[in-house]
Amino acid sequence: xxxxxxxxxxxxxxxxxxxxxxxxxxxxxxxxxxxxxxxxxxxxxxxxxxxxxxxxxxxxxxxxxxxxxxxxxxxxxxxxxxxxxxxxxxxxxxxxxxxxxxxxxxxxxxxxxxxxxxxxxxxxxxxxxxxxxxxxxxxxxxxxxxxxxxxxxxxxxxxxxxxxxxxxxxxxxxxxxxxxxxxxxxxxxxxxxxxxxxxxxxxxxxxxxxxxxxxxxxxxxxxxxxxxxxxxxxxxxxxxxxxxxxxxxxxxxxxxxxxxxxxxxxxxxxxxxxxxxxxxxxxxxxxxxxxxxxxxxxxxxxxxxxxxxxxxxxxxxxxxxxxxxxxxx
Length: 329
Hints:
Largest sheet: 6 strands, mixed
Oligomer: single chain
CATH class of the largest domain: Alpha Beta
CATH superfamily of the largest domain: Bordetella uptake gene, domain 1
Radius of gyration: 26 Å
Structural class: alpha/beta
């Protein structure tokens, strides 16, 4: 009996030694590497060249390369058309692809509602919000209107020709509410594919006013363009601290644009987490924060599910706005 017990104890000791040895071997092995892209990443832009989304995507791609934040290049690719529908359809077709991301604007939630598309923002993978963009009311530097009051007086007498990015997108939406709040003659709205082209047409005198994002108008400021007001809820800091808000001038209009990053439907969780972490690294760079200040964006970072919930509320606001504008029946 005693011999049997000794054999059992010996067997247990051998098992323990083997287990410890295996653990030791495992400790010597490197941990499995976290997921990262293995080929160039398509960075889809929902608008044409020269607009805000184009500027930001290319700047972010440049920062990723400059600071060696990723093992592969991020390749900006413009997919203009259909008020963002072309870009969304392209990314939607990349379901499950971990090597495609998209920078968005407000049309990301507006276009599926207005065009009654067979998909919505919910079909895409929320990665991160990196900023909220603003809008200025811009006129030519030599325009006879030196204030919003003077612009309103002229727009109440005649239908002025104005321009914006796309049809039934955020620019036209702002002009529509401006008409309603200030009792203006209907604007003659001219849509273009990108904010850079919009600003160029204002510089050239083809249109009388725009509501370009600051980054789109700043290349022509102060030499050729002048902002009359901001549609932000409060005044900005820095060089535009003296620029009044539309609200303080008596017009209850405020609006900001989402600058967010999304992936295709069914993007793998590990890829989503990788890109969210990457965008946080970009967001925290001094270069990026300086860029936000220069282009008058509000710094705001959200990621993953928290960002997804925020987009849901953002979408609800636009549903109400679109219904009031009569763009969705």
